[in-house]
Write a structure and sequence with these properties.
The chain has 35 helices and 14 strands. It is α/β, with parallel strands linked by helices. The chain has 5 domains: about 90 residues, no CATH class; about 300 residues, Alkaline Phosphatase, subunit A (3-Layer(aba) Sandwich), CATH 3.40.720.10; about 90 residues, no CATH class; about 80 residues, no CATH class; about 400 residues, no CATH class. Strand 9, helix 7 and strand 10 form a beta-alpha-beta unit. Helix 23 packs across helix 34, helix 26 runs antiparallel to helix 29 and helix 30 runs parallel beside helix 33. The structure holds zinc ion (2 copies). One zinc ion binds next to helix 5.
């Protein structure tokens, strides 16, 4: 039987192999080498005879990763499990199997240390005394190994970091939705390819590689999840647990013969996941003594383990070691975003097959890190995080993981040039294979006349590069061969992303059509139902012609047919068919548009243009605020000037003055750093006192006012709330004080916190529904919850926001008086529960568009006032310490969401009041809000990008999603605000007369 020699896989038909004549791939008789392999793996490798459409090819994949199915024609089909890219195997002209070189690898085993959350600078730099925090590893950098920075990608979380390191690909953004917990896809990893892997560490990380692996050859040793307590006195015990267990494991291996034999085989891996640094970083921040002391502990542990393993194997020089981390950490103890402190991680490799330190006189990298770390005399070899996977695979001679996009960093290897060139060629073939699968997949689902292949990497081009590479390797021109491989990899990766985004233009047009249609339709609806522009009755309305109906039906059928023959996913149908009913509806309402244009022409052109200009400017300002929070400051200053511009200050000087003051106060917040970076409990306590003063003053004022609307019960309720506010303030200070002295958090604090949280939604419902009383109740309840979730200046945010919202209600009242729309209606006699009388609603006017703008702007301010997009995914656990101290992503995430929601609810309640006092229906205002947010969505849709850094990509997608969800979100919030303001629970039913 023929076997493929140079590579375990041959992605070409027999004819082509013949034509290549051993240029591209060497075909020779099965040799002793593969027989050797058969011995080294516990199950014999299967030689599968596979039929493709164009012929056959040979492969001998790893049996445990491959299921052999017998076909009716008794042909074997190799069915791959765990393939990220779905392949329609029966039709696939190529067969996918593992690609690796058959040259003898330099190492028999590899030890991977991952210090979770270790920053590159903390690790490499020298401390104040000029000594290293990791003396052992620093000594290795100087004497035995290679080093560099491993650049991670966003999101800098543990799971994607480990997947990049061990499986060699950057996980899809959609995995975020699953909390990085479950495998969104099964994937291949270096562990899966190894003969055996033993791993020790956190239950959050290890199981996913064991679950992703087929068969029983990845062993995990985890501690209990409860051990990861953020308030624990000493998080380094997470690391010492690992080191202790590894030691015990090797001691026990001496007694256990089966284990001993397994350990002495080839292609063995050990993985030590060290979570202590991450835990200490979150709990105490990376600048702390605890974090730095933990680096020292890890260094000592690594030293012990290295010595232990080398002794166990009798110093056979067949062990390779890699030390790195999954992500860094910001100065304020978070990770997830793309700040350099998060994306720069250390990489140190040494042992079998790794190059010795290379002394150089000048560093070829553009930054000054090497000088800062006093390592400028040694060559620094930077890699991308996914490159570590092929490095490990080639060191121990296992196939590269299937979906790996890592590029082998050959500078790290200390082996023959032939080995380097062969490894690189294998790397290129493996990435090329993914490109081909993707191309086949796209080709099958596209009409052949519409299919345009990736022009830069045609089949002949691939063969040409491979042939040249082969001849260079045979001729000993390894440098040229490496360069060619590198260019092939770059082209294949470019091609992969080309096919990945193949349908983008087509889908883009559909989405834009859908959006513009939708916006136009809502505008038409507003004009038709909410304004008095169309006076004539609808008899002028053209009968919706049958022609247009048939036309749109035909178009819809055509598109469906077109998508069906291309077997597109169901989402494509949604995107492409949605615009059709929308545009059909518009075609029925065209007459409104005609009337509207006539109306616009009848009023002065300058005014129309000016109005449009203001709208566009306002929308642009809001779009810009997603990128620069400072824009919100500009907007708020503009708001402060608004009453001066409209001469409102002559009408009510005091209200205007208060409005200006609070606008300017709130304008300070977007200029502050993002929440959680500088904890300042004093400010939280100050915010507590400020809200106490405000509440007490308000209660006193309401109680003393002549036409008092509430009774003793309500006063008692208010007093209780004020007391709870005071208790909350105390709980925050006591929690953080006891954490500072590492005493843990008293149980009573947790109880008080959860009670306050639970009561926040219920207590306001007990008060009377008169405007001021109800708003005050809502204010106290939500501010006390927010205080418990605050760690710094942000505690003041809802207080000032609430004050501004309160003044806003008065300001809107003034505009109504100014426009003569309503007499000065007494706000304090408004009762929320009796304000839903439809007959009182009036038609919309231009001022209502401004009100809607105010709402959208305040909602955005509530969102970005204290944070940005990045601050949402990388939150600071310190802010939930009052509620819990044990790591629990779901509860923590829920609490953080509630914290983000509170300002929204405050704004929404104020808006509810404005609607009632201005006598407009919430539906009509919402239609305007819908138009504004849809225009913004369209804007962000064009800004969605898939190039640039991962931070840019992630941010652009989240912007789009946020604006898309804004409308739905605001509708829900409006319902909630309506509920909070109008509903009342009667507890003192007997004494009802008191409160009515
Ligand atoms: Zn991590
Ligand atoms: Zn972490």
């Amino acid at each position: 039987m023929l076997q493929v020699g140079g590579f375990a896989c041959l992605p070409f038909g027999v004819g082509r192999v013949g034509a290549l004549g051993g240029v591209c791939l060497q075909v020779r008789q099965i040799g002793g080498r593969s027989a050797q392999l058969a011995v080294s793996t516990p199950e014999p490798p299967v030689t599968a005879f596979v039929f493709g459409r164009f012929g056959w090819s040979w492969c001998f994949p790893r049996s445990r990763s491959v299921r052999i199915l017998s076909h009716e024609k008794s042909t074997f089909y190799v069915v791959l499990q765990r393939l990220l890219i779905k392949i329609h195997l029966e039709n696939a002209p190529v067969v996918h199997c593992w690609i690796r070189t058959l040259l003898q690898p330099p190492a028999n085993r590899l030890v991977l240390f991952v210090a979770d959350g270790l920053r590159a600078d903390t690790f490499f730099e020298l401390d104040e005394n000029g000594t290293s925090r990791a003396p052992y590893l620093r000594d290795i950098i100087h004497t035995r190994g290679s080093w560099g920075i491993s650049h991670t990608r966003v999101p800098t979380e543990s799971r994607p970091g480990h997947v990049a390191l061990i499986a060699g690909f950057y996980e899809d953004v959609s995995a975020v939705a699953k909390g990085w917990k479950e495998n969104p896809v099964q994937f291949d990893s270096v562990f899966n390819e190894s003969a055996y892997t033993w791993s020790w560490g956190s239950p959050d990380i290890l199981p996913m590689f064991a679950k992703g692996a087929s068969g029983e050859h990845v062993y995990t040793h985890c501690y209990l999840a409860e051990t990861e307590d953020f308030a624990a006195k000493d998080a380094t015990k997470l690391d010492t647990w690992v080191f202790k267990n590894v030691k015990e494991f090797f001691i026990s291996a001496r007694e256990n013969q089966t284990l001993f034999n397994k350990l002495n085989g080839e292609k063995v891996m050990f993985f030590l996941h060290l979570l202590g640094l991450d835990t200490n970083g979150h709990a105490h921040r990376p600048g702390s003594r605890e974090y730095k002391e933990n680096v020292r502990k890890v260094d000592e542990g690594v030293k012990e383990i290295v010595e232990l393993i080398e002794a166990f194997y009798g110093n056979d020089d067949k062990t390779a070691f890699i030390f790195t981390s999954d992500h860094g950490m910001t100065d304020w103890g978070s990770h997830g975003a793309g700040h350099p402190s998060e994306t720069l991680t250390p990489l140190v490799a040494w042992g079998a097959g790794v190059h010795y330190p290379r002394r150089i006189t000048m560093q070829h990298v553009g930054d000054t890190f090497s000088q800062q770390w006093k390592l400028d005399g040694l060559d620094r070899l930077d890699v991308n995080q996914a490159d570590v996977a092929p490095l490990m695979a080639s060191l121990i001679g296992v196939p590269y993981p299937l979906n790996s996009v890592g590029i082998l960093p050959v500078e790290y290897l200390n082996s023959s040039d032939l080995f380097k060139a062969e490894s690189m060629l294998t790397n290129a073939l493996q990435i090329l294979e993914q490109f081909k699968v993707k191309m086949t997949q796209k080709k099958e689902t596209t009409l052949s006349i519409l299919f345009s292949p990736f022009a830069l990497l045609s089949e002949s081009e691939q063969l040409d590069i491979l042939r040249k590479t082969r001849s260079h390797i045979q001729g000993g021109n390894y440098k040229e061969a490496l360069l060619l491989c590198r260019s092939l990899i770059d082209l294949a990766l470019e091609g992969l992303s080309y096919y990945h985004t193949y349908d983008r233009f087509f889908l883009g047009i559909s989405v834009v059509m859908g959006f513009t249609g939708w916006i136009l339709y809502i505008i038409l609806i507003i004009i038709k139902t909410q304004t008095d522009i169309i006076q004539t009755s609808s008899n002028s309305r053209m009968e919706s012609s049958h022609l247009s109906r048939y036309g749109f039906t035909a178009l819809g059928s055509f598109i469906t047919f077109f998508l069906m023959i291309q077997s597109c996913p169901w989402t494509y149908y949604v995107y492409c068919l949605l615009p059709i009913p929308v545009w059909h509806a518009i075609s029925n309402e065209v007459w409104i548009l005609n009337k509207f244009v006539d109306y616009m022409l009848s009023i002065s052109l300058a005014r129309t243009m000016g109005f449009l200009l203001v709208i566009i400017l306002a929308v642009e300002l809001m779009v810009l605020s997603f990128f620069y929070r400072a824009v919100l400051t500009v907007g708020l200053i503009a708001f402060a000037c608004w009453p001066i511009g409209t001469k409102m200050y002559t009408q009510s000087k005091i209200t205007t003055l208060v409005w200006v003051v609070f606008c300017l106060l709130l304008a300070v917040f977007p200029l502050m750093p993002v929440v959680g970076r500088e904890p300042n409990i004093t400010l939280v306590i100050f915010a507590g006192f400020a809200s106490l003063c405000i509440s007490l003053t308000s209660i006193w004022y309401l109680w003393k006012s002549k036409d008092r609307k509430f009774g003793d019960q309500n006063l008692a309720l208010n007093i209780c709330q004020v007391l709870s506010l005071a208790v909350s303030t105390y709980v925050v200070s006591s929690t953080h004080a006891s954490l500072a002295i590492k005493q843990g958090v008293p149980l009573i604090n947790h109880i008080v916190s959860w009670t306050t949280l639970a009561s926040a939604l219920a207590v306001p419902l007990l008060s009377t529904t008169f405007l001021f009383q109800r708003l005050l109740c809502i204010f106290i309840s939500f501010v006390s919850t927010y205080l418990l979730l605050s760690t710094g200046y942000e505690a003041l945010f809802p207080v000032i926001l609430s004050c501004l919202m309160f003044v806003w209600i008065f300001m809107e009242q003034e505009t109504l008086v100014k426009n003569g729309l309503s007499g000065r209606r007494k706000l304090n006699i408004i009762d929320f529960s009796c304000s839903t009388d439809i007959s009182q609603f009036r038609q919309l006017n231009l001022d209502d568009i401004r009100r809607s703008f105010f709402l959208v702007f305040f909602i955005i301010t509530a969102f970005f006032g204290t944070g940005n997009i990045a601050s949402i995914n990388s939150f600071d656990p310190a802010s939930v310490y009052c509620f819990l101290t044990i790591f629990n992503p779901f509860v923590m995430g829920g609490l953080m969401m509630w914290k983000v929601l509170i300002p929204f609810i405050l704004v929404m309640c104020a808006f509810e009041t404005v609607q009632i006092s201005a006598q407009i229906s919430s539906k009509s205002l919402f239609l305007i809000v819908l138009v504004i947010s849809d225009i913004m969505s369209l804007h962000f849709f064009f800004l969605v990008q898939d190039y640039g850094s991962w931070l840019d990509i992630g941010t652009s997608i989240s912007h789009y999603v946020i604006v898309m969800c804004m409308t739905i979100f605001m509708m829900l919030l409006s319902r909630l605000a309506h509920f909070l303001t109008t509903k009342k629970i009667e507890v003192w039913r007997k004494k009802k007369h008191h409160s009515t």
